Each structure stands twice: as C-alpha cells, then as structure tokens.
C-alpha cells in the first residue's frame, strides 16, 4: 500500500495488515524476548518468564509503525502524533523557534499564537510525523526534567526537542517533542537541511510523552479538547481558517 494514491471518490484499495515494528524498538523486543525464554526454558521460572513474555509483546506493540494515508492538501496541517488533544491555548512560542538563529533563516514570529498539545499514552503509536511538507530549518534538543507530560509546565521544563519546518512559500510550522514521566529518550530521524513530505516520519519518543504544535497566526485548530488524533492522517488545522468548532462528549 505504501505510495499508493487513494482518494474520496473511491480510488484505491485498503485492508488490514500487521503494522511494522520500527527498527529502533526491535532490539528492545529481542532482548526482552530472550530474557523471557531464558527464564521459561532454561531456569524454569515461570513466575518471571510469563510476565517477561507479556512485556516483550508490549514492547513490540509500543514500537509499532503502521502505514498512514496522508491528505495531500496544501492548506492542511497534519497531526504529528497519535494521542489525545489535551490543550489548545494561546502562548508565546519557544524562544528557540523565534527569529533568526544565526543561520540566516527566520523562525516563528514574536507574539502569542495557538498551541495545540497532543498527549501520547503508552498505548499510542509513538512515531512522530511532519505536519507539513518543507525543509527542516531547526532541530534543537534541550535536556530537562521528566514530569508528567500532560502538565502545562512540561513545555518549559521537560526534556524536549524543537523542530522547525519551512515550506517553499515561506510558511513556517514549529512543533516540539516533549518527554514524559516514563519517556527517557527522544530519537530524531531528520536533521537540519532535510526535505520532508507532509506526514513523513521525523522521530519518536520512548514510552509516553507529548507533542506541541504551534499554528501560524490567523489559523485556528480543527480539533477539539479531548479528541483522539492520528499522526499523518488527522487534519488539525487549515491555513487561514479560523472557524469556531464545538463538540459534545457522548
């Protein structure tokens, strides 16, 4: 299915398939599986072996990397993460993403803009994807704490990595990977200067975390607090659209 064109007029075929396991997670799964088999087959310690075998399955599930059908629309800003929209708030963007960083490339503008925060539990897919197509202009890693990623101050105090992507027409989107209570490693797949497609994989965060997306001025989110979103598929905003959208939990 990878690379196949599908549309809303019936073109294309779809079917369920086992998701791939990202290479970053295979080594952890193999190590846990080997330990489980050692306890079960060599030491005959089932009280440890069976829980370790269940943990092995959980590790492989955590690092699953399913294919996604990415909307091809120049107005669309795509969700970079699977998870739940936990915050929509007006904030000043991180200073690491604002203005010229010395490379001659402008970042985000000063002034309050809309931040959409997406919380990823340990049950969500943790592969992160680019919200737009363009060039990676900045990738800034900042060490920090490991507080609950659902807290507002996690944006300023937790371990995090800022990514800035600029389109060919000059539109810039900034987003931040934030480690959480259990997460202990942010793994980038891209570097400054790389060209990325909308929905392309750009990194992952191990074991529970959050993504903050900074929308351009004049753009309001199309998602609601509490809504589940899918990386690479859910359109979280359309450039220039500011319509109020309300939802009902039921």
Question: How would you characterize this protein structure?
Answer:
- With 250 residues, this protein is α+β, with helices and mostly antiparallel strands.
- The protein has two domains: 20-65; 76-238, Glucose Permease (Domain IIA) (Distorted Sandwich).
- The protein contains three helices and 15 strands.
- The chain has an eight-stranded antiparallel β-sheet.
- A hairpin with a 5-residue loop joins β8 and β9.
- α1 packs antiparallel against α2.
- The chain starts with 19 loop residues before the first strand and ends in a 12-residue tail after the last strand.
- The model has no long low-confidence stretch (mean pLDDT 89).
- The chain crosses the membrane at residues 28-45.
- The modification Pyruvic acid (Ser) is found at residue 209.
List the SSEs and their pairings.
Layout: E1 20-21, H1 23-42, H2 46-62, E2 64-65, E3 76-78, E4 83-91, E5 113-120, E6 127-129, E7 134-142, H3 154-157, E8 160-166, E9 172-179, E10 186-188, E11 195-196, E12 201-205, E13 209-214, E14 228-229, E15 235-238
Antiparallel strand pairs: 1-2, 3-15, 4-5, 4-14, 5-13, 6-12, 7-8, 7-11, 8-9, 9-13, 10-12
């Amino acid at each position: 299915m990878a690379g196949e064109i599908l549309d809303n007029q019936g073109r294309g075929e779809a079917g369920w398939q086992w998701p791939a396991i990202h290479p970053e997670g295979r080594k952890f799964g193999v190590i846990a599986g080997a330990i489980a088999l050692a306890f079960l087959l060599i030491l005959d310690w089932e009280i440890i072996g069976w829980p370790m075998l269940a943990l092995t399955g959980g590790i492989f599930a955590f690092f699953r990397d399913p294919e996604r059908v990415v909307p091809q629309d120049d107005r669309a800003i795509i969700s970079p993460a699977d998870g739940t929209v936990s915050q929509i708030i007006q904030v000043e963007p991180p200073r690491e993403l604002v203005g010229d960083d010395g490379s001659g490339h402008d970042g985000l503008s000063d002034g309050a803009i809309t931040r959409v925060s997406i919380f990823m539990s340990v049950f969500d897919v943790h592969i992160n994807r680019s919200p737009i197509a363009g060039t990676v202009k900045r990738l800034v890693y900042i060490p920090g704490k490991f507080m609950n990623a659902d807290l507002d101050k996690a944006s300023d105090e937790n371990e995090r990595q800022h990514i800035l992507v600029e389109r060919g027409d000059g539109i810039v989107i900034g987003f931040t990977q934030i480690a959480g209570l259990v997460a202990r490693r942010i793994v980038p797949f891209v570097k400054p200067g790389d060209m990325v497609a909308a929905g392309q994989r750009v990194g992952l965060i191990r074991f529970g975390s959050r993504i903050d997306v900074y929308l351009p001025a004049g753009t309001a989110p199309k998602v609601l607090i509490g809504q589940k979103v899918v990386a690479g598929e859910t359109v979280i905003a359309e450039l220039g659209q500011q319509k109020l959208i309300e939802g009902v939990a039921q």
